[in-house]
Write a structure and sequence with these properties.
Keywords: Allosteric enzyme, ATP-binding, Kinase, Nucleotide-binding, Transferase. The protein is an alpha+beta fold. The chain contains twelve helices and ten strands. The strands form two sheets. Strands 2-3-4-5-1-8-10-9 form an eight-stranded antiparallel beta sheet, with helices on one face. α9 runs antiparallel to α10. The protein is globular and about 65 Å long.
Length: about 375
């Protein structure tokens, strides 16, 4: 399979779009947790109930034109290969829990992969909408439209005082988890991130790694989301998170300006060393690739590197993960083999970028 063809099939459309403040905010996500009335929660249900839930949601959504969403493709976890499930996790379309621990799990995906619905994960349904940049309100609007469509056909577990009922008490109420993925190299390099994270936590928000709870913040990418779902409206939750994110954006830009002012040549040297590694390395591990990609993206944002699109960095942050590398290779790879493939993949992707720029009359 050629790289061009693989990229066309592998990349979600939202990854190549530039939303508001996309130099710092990579993506915005809204996730709604919902459960069916008169069914046991996923942690306690029987196989029969699990299959009933799948059949009900298939009848409701499969091959149906949904307002503002279109048609959704149904995928049952047990019919997918482990590598395919890993790729869906790396694209943030399903959770690791659904991929690994849900024998009766399924998901529904929109064609552009901006919308995904996990079935029989921790809750019966987890409705997710993804957008590029800082677009939490837009993601909430689409998620609510889909939620209303489903609720028009299915009775949810709902309490007048507590709101939507969920398996985990921390999701009771709105069932809403709003999150943004942020690239914060300035705050990391100036050591401000160590003071910022505790302050964010005190505001009722939580900071996690690239794949959510329990994951590591590699490549200076952090996921920031709300903790409180009860006692606040969906609009209030989104507005509060947006306000904090806008303050973090301002601090990140200030930190970048300070780095340029105080350490310009050192910062430029760091960027170009990382650029050189990505273009020429023959073996590269996940963490080193993520660090170098972060440096190069910062270099693009600051104008050190020209004629390289930020989109290529968005792609490579995802495509250099183990699942994608093995998918492109056509089968399982040992860790060292993945490191070799990763380096070759990155070199090939930069060569493709050079080719595109050359055909367009530009040069690196």
């Amino acid at each position: 399979m050629s790289l061009e063809h693989f990229l066309q099939k592998a990349i979600s459309s939202w990854m190549n779009e530039e939303g508001p403040d996309s130099d710092i905010v990579l993506s915005s996500r809204i996730r709604l947790a919902r459960n069916f009335k008169d069914f046991s929660f996923s942690t306690l249900f029987s196989q029969e109930e699990a299959m009933q839930i799948i059949n009900v949601i298939k009848d409701c959504l499969n091959d149906t034109d949904i307002p503002e969403v279109g048609r959704l493709e149904f995928l049952q976890m047990e019919s997918l290969q482990p590598l395919d499930k890993l790729v869906l996790v790396e694209k943030h379309l399903i959770s690791p829990n659904l991929a690994e621990d849900s024998p009766y799990g399924a998901c529904l995906l929109s064609a552009n992969e901006e919308v995904s619905i996990m079935v029989n994960e921790e809750d019966h349904l987890r409705i997710q909408c993804l957008y590029s940049g800082l677009q939490l309100n837009e993601a909430l609007q689409r998620a609510n439209a889909l939620d209303d469509f489903i609720e028009g056909q299915i009775d949810y577990a709902f309490d007048e005082e507590r709101g939507y009922l969920t398996s985990c008490p921390t999701n009771v109420g709105t069932g809403l988890r709003a999150s943004v993925m942020m690239h914060l190299p300035g705050l990391v390099l100036t050591n401000q991130i160590n003071h910022l994270i505790p302050a964010i936590n005190q505001l009722g928000l939580v900071v996690r790694g690239i794949y959510g709870e329990g994951s590591e913040a590699i490549g200076n990418i952090f996921q920031i989301s709300n903790q409180i779902t009860l006692g606040k409206s969906e609009t209030d939750i989104v507005e509060d998170l947006t306000s904090v994110v806008q303050q973090i954006i301002a601090q990140e830009r200030s930190a970048r300006e300070a780095l340029v002012h105080t350490s310009d040549i050192q910062l430029e040297d760091r960027v170009y060393r990382s650029f050189g590694i990505l273009q020429h390395a023959r073996v590269i591990e996940t963490k080193e690739a993520a660090r170098c990609l972060s440096d190069v993206r910062l270099g693009i944002d600051l104008g050190y590197i020209k004629n390289i699109s930020k989109g290529i960095l968005n792609e490579l942050m995802i495509l250099t993960q183990p699942g994608f590398l093995q998918k492109y290779a056509g089968g399982p790879l040992r860790p060292h083999e993945r490191d070799i493939r990763r380096a070759a993949f990155i070199r090939e992707r930069f060569d493709l970028e050079k080719k595109d720029n050359s055909e367009g009359g530009n040069s690196l």
